[in-house]
Amino acid sequence: KLQFLYFIAPPFPPGIMVSFILYLTLILIPTCYAQLPQVPFTSKCPGEYCLLVTHGGWSFYRVRIDPSLWPAGQGQKVTDDVIYNTCYQASKGQPPPCMGRSSLCRFYSSSMCQATSELGCEQPMLTTAIAMGCSSPQDPQCKDRLIGGDTSAIWASMGNNWGTYSCGRVGTLEHENIFCVSGNDQSVDGTWWGNCDAHNPPCDGTTIVPKPAITRTLQHYAFCVGKTVCTCVHGECDMASDSGACLLGSCSQGWGGVNCNIPCTSAFCSGRHDTSKPSGGFYVNSLNQCVCECLPQWGPGGLEGCTQCTLPGSHECVAYTAEYLATTTMVTSVPAGSPIEIDIEARFQQNHQVDPNINTELFVELNPGGGNGDGKPVTFHPNPIVMTMGRATVRITFGSGCDACVIVIKDLDTSNPSLTYRLQPLVLPPIEVFADGTKMLAVSSVGNVTPNVPFMITLQIVDDNGSIDRSATNKVRVSLEGADNQYLQATSTSNLEQTFNRGQATWELVLLRSCVGCSLRFEDMSITRTLPPYVHGPIQAIGSAVGLKITTIVPSQVRKNQVFDLVVEAVDTNGDIDTTATGTLSAALRTDIGGGNGNGGSILNKAGTSSLSQPIINGRTTWSLSFTNACFSCVITVSDILPITSAGYLGSIDLPPINVLTLATMLGVITAVPTTVAVGEIFALQVAAVDEFKNIDEGDVSRITLSIEDSSSNNNGNGGLLVDESIGGGSLTRIFLRGNATWQLSFTESCDSCVIKVEDIDAPILATIRLPPIRVTTTAVRLAVLEYGFTDFSVQRRVSFPIRIGAVDANGGVDRSNNGRVLMQLRPGGGNGDGGDLTNTLPSSNDQNLVEGEALFNPVFSEACTQCQLEFRHESPLFPVLVLPPILVRTNAIRFAFVVEPPAEVKPGQQFTVTIQAIDDQGNYDTSERGLVQMSSLVGGSNGNGGLLLNEMSTAQPVVQTTRGQATFSPTFTQACAACRLQFEDIDTALPNLISPEIRVSGDGAQLSVLSPVWARQVSQAVTYSFPIEQSLIIVIRVLDSDGFTSLSADTAVTVEKNPGGGNGDGGIMREVSGRGLAQTAVNGEVTFNLGFDKACASCILTFVATNGVSSYTMPPFRVTSPGVKIIITSPYVGTISKSTLFPFILEVQDAAGNVDQTWNSPVRVFLREGGGNGNGGQLLYGTAPTPILPDKFVNGVIEYTLSFSEACDACVIEAQDSTGKVNSATLGPIRVTTSTYQLSAEIKTQRVTLNTAFEVDIKALDTENNINKDDTGDVSIALAENVNGVIQKKTFGLEPALGPSGQDTRGLTVTKRLTSGETTVGLVVTEPNCAECLLVFEYESSEGVKPFQILINDPSLGSTIAPGAPGSG
């Protein structure tokens, strides 16, 4: 049981409160505990009962099934009745456990089983198996623990809901994985039906086919239960027991009603036991119960109420007739909706024991008047109840709360006078049913209250049916909604936060202020916060009015005839409105204080349409007032019209003073406006709101702004910005104070005629005005261009153009007072003719005087110029020099010339740039637009002629538009060319064609190719060319570009390399005969090699490797020949080989350097020399065909054979002779030819064998020709045959000990010995044959799989002579 400790802390910030509560909810304090015991178990239980395990307060047993309980005529069929009777008898009234504990399990039956902590509904006995340390009832670990072993079975009741049969776990191997064996299953074992077996079919009318050779008989057990109720000493919980003993307290009731704290002694039986019994009249059974063996003379009041025993010497008594109903289940409280089970018993009045003979129906009813919902609706299951053997169980579920619900259980048959017994009704003690509270409700409603007067409200926590949750102890806080929460307080006898007691709590509260439409909000402050908030209201708290209060904002000033609202409330002493107040209030203009400037004239209510006296409605009076004239500090008073001495007189109240303003109609300028000011010079401007008489409306609060009006007459800087230079920082936008405003203004730039605009920006009441024009002067600091007489800074040679120069200030404004002299000059370095001579026309002088700060120049250039710059100098040294941006001076062209010439050499695909320019007669560029120019390639360049001419890698025969007399091309030749030329043609203006110098187009080397010899150009990789070693080979290599044209680049180096693997000498050392070396640089794309070799070569290949990324070239193979002088065997030496095994025999005719003479094609003879020994190898066979074709002639100096030997040989030699005699012969050998074992032979090495005297037998491994296989080192086994008398042993002096002692029958015993060089010797002894003529049969078998054979030996003890037998038989 886990208990949560918590408390409600003082108010914290929200984050802290949450963290604090979360921390506290993690403190778990266990007050008492129960641990599920793991009870050790053994299958060797004493007696007929075994305690399996205890869990959930229940003890589970395995009880042997009494044979007398099997159904008559059905053998050992395990029905639920068998299990019920077994458990009931063993426990003295306790039914077997149900599989599941409620009707939710389809195998549950309150009349057939007992609901316990066993919950294995669909998997019977699951909970018990887990408590025993197993994963499931099928766990192999449970075979011994739960079932009892391989020859046992345990059966659980299924409540007569699985047919009528029980569910079993059977320990036999073939049933170990079966989930649930039916009690009707005939396959469990061969003796399932009583004494039926293979010798006694049929049995009980059923033919049984038992399993072969199985004669086992299962021991069957029932799965039973007993309950131990324990009460804790130190806690409030009802604890489970551990192995039948209380964990923390004492046992109050045991299985069978025996108090487990009383020892089983003779005193327990109180002299009513048969002491003549061997047990002394009492004993402890396997359920740890004390049993007294009954005496016949027991009288009334004896143990268990016995008057007589059922049989003399028995411990069972004749029962009384039951008289009343009783229960062992004590329930005092239960949550609504949670079922409770009541166990009912029919008992004797005298001894209060259960009468097992009672089988009747019981009726359950709820007495009315339980209160708090009366627990309704209440359900009983079953109803009526079937009582069997004096016991029954009913499940009761209350639908709502109940303070004291009383359950009555009656015997339905008590009204039948024919019955011999009457059962008194069972009236259970009152049960308190706790409703599961879901919400809070007020017991009574709170309506109107009085401020500062306490009132009470009571809340209950109820369920959905309205029943009080008596278990609720929630903490709930109340707050005020609709008003300031601080006005709600609890009295000294209460708190805003209350803890519910038995589902109810009461608050005593007080409202400090009036409140209309307020509500009380109750919130669950418990840690779980399971209840939703409850809002109770509305609540009216109203005080009595004693005075007046102004609730609207009174304006400090208004305009004449401007309407404003006034609201006055009748309030109590707290200043809260009294909505019940009545009467009339009047508004008036006071004449004794304030006034002036028209004194406000008079006040009107709703423009004169309503009276100034208005009624109080819901505690409030409203006016809409206005003044008819201007006024300074006018005061309005509101007063109750009742006499001052009248009861309920509310007094009077004055409004704050109000200024009433007149209405201005226009703006007026108060100060004089200057006609001329300098830039930055400050001048004052005062503007006021005036009426039609030009008087200032001092009440005007208009927002006025100033700006420079945008006008074409302004020019020359337009005044720049208008700035307010007032002290403290000014703004061009101001609000009138007493109807006027003053600015301190200045202009940031010059202006010829600037106009200041004054306007009201909020409302069109005051019309906009404009001041007279003002000229703003400035002081020049530099020269500037005021006007250019050309565009794009481009002019024509010898044509004049205008430029206007001015003296300006820093902002560009012209200083009209500056009349200084200015000089115009041409700066050197303009390029392209530099502009020639600069002259000025109209006037002709290059220096002029400024007029009102301006001067006009008309310069002209005599020559072209690319970037000519003009400069202007003021006579004042304080003025910087004015330099104009570069000017292009255009001219007229007569021809084209190269600006960027094409390169002398390019590569195919390489893009290069060519730029041509139109020039005039002086060689200056004509930068005007000339039109179109076409580029083309002249024919006849050779070596590819350049291929296709492209511009920018895309366009053939490109046409380009000139820009400023210049055209740029990006040509590309697609192929090589020895001497190509470009031509440029003017399409539009027909200037002469321009032709470029010769261009050499040489591609990068991409690949090598062979020019000679011709045979090297073939594609085939076969050798088609050969030459003697004394000659040389001349090869010409070309370097080609990617298009296959000769690369004319002179920096490509080519190296010749001889590839390895040419064979037959590989050509030896390669040299360049002419002395140019094996690495040469190509000249005009070609290189020549003259190569020689010092050794032969079968298939030499040369590779030519180039630099600069040029891919290499590999020539086809060629042969270098050299004369042969000897025959050489090149196949691997065969030292040892098995007969008939093929091996290669390869011959070559080689020269003096060891290279094959590939021109040699003479006949050859191969034969086997005599004298090899051990069969001399037999015949030399060729190949595997019956009559293979034997090659007899060299082919290109080489001949190959596949040979084998037909017989074994110790040292065979093979010889090869050339038929011409021009080369030396060759031999291969010596070769050892081995054979394989075909059979074993045995030979007795003595002519006579004596009893108990060792003799030897030689064992040999022979092939098919009876030769010894000297390579056989396998094991040979020697064994006596069946049905042979006598004993054969190894020699005692041998490597292994004897096979057995004298006289031991060793038939079938095997002796093993390993062959050495195909032979071994075994020593044997014949002992005690005891026969006149003893026939001993031996069997020999090799590990190589050779067939066994036998040796027959006569008995030597009788003097018989034994002749050595032939191998394999003798």
In short:
With 1370 residues, the protein is mainly beta. The protein is built from five helices and 106 strands.
Explain what the structure shows.
- By secondary structure, this protein is mostly beta strands.
- It is 3% helix and 38% strand.
- The protein is built from 5 helices and 106 strands.
- The strands form 29 sheets. Strands 3-4-8-5-6-7 form a 6-stranded mixed sheet. Strands 16, 18, 20, 22, 23 and 24 form a 6-stranded mixed sheet that branches. Strands 57, 59, 61, 64, 65 and 66 form a 6-stranded mixed sheet that branches.
- The longest helix is centred in the first third of the chain and has 12 residues.
- It starts with a strand and ends in a 17-residue tail after the last strand.
- The relative contact order is 0.03.
